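#structure-requests
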Amino acid sequence: MSVEIHPQAVIHPGAYLDEHVKIGPYAVIEENVKVGAHTVIECGARLTGHTVIGHNCRIFSYAVIGSQPQDLKYKGQRSFLSIGNHNLIREFVTINPGTEEESQTVIGDSNLIMAYSHVAHNCQVGSHNVLANAATIAGHVEIADHIVIGGLVAVHQFCRIGDYAIIGGCSKVVQDIPPYSLCDGHPAKVYNVNLVGLKRGGFSRGQIETLRKAFKILFFDNHSFDEAEQLVRKELSAGKEIEDLLRFIATSKRGICR
């Protein structure tokens, strides 16, 4: 096994480093941390707690990964943080494990988490997401896939953010963000479908047009959600995107931003 460890790094003998891991100077990797193959830990980063990092990740300087949750209910319980593969975690990012015994925070694959962002305890983050600088994600937030969260956005605990959504910078998110949406504001509200994101995601013109019609009925025509759902099912062809959108709304606990 070939591991490159700078002589001024501090590695606990109870940590596990897979092959071709590279550790920079002054990095600290504590007991119970596992780091996957070809992952790079840069100067001054700290990995702690019961944390697993996947392969081909890069954790930049002064990120703190796995430190105890910022939750007054936390009393030293054993909890976990799992980070997938191909993630870029930039400078001064903080990511916390779960609060309750045996609970966990989970980060998927191929995410870019930019400098000074925070992902709190018990969050579930999917894959192919971008959290721009100083995005602040409170506890128990669920973030799906292919999402862009703008800089300085604050997301309230227990909120959900659906697939292919984009949230404008400096927004305040206090309710669920529907999939495929473009949202912004204080508090955030729906302005349109995420046209650019859907095009980049390979959605056809017909799929995008159907979503735009659904958004008009659901968010802009002043119907209740029950009335809007009936109209959407009556007037638009069924498809995965429409079903996903309606299911997301139906299962919301905090309510949907409109």
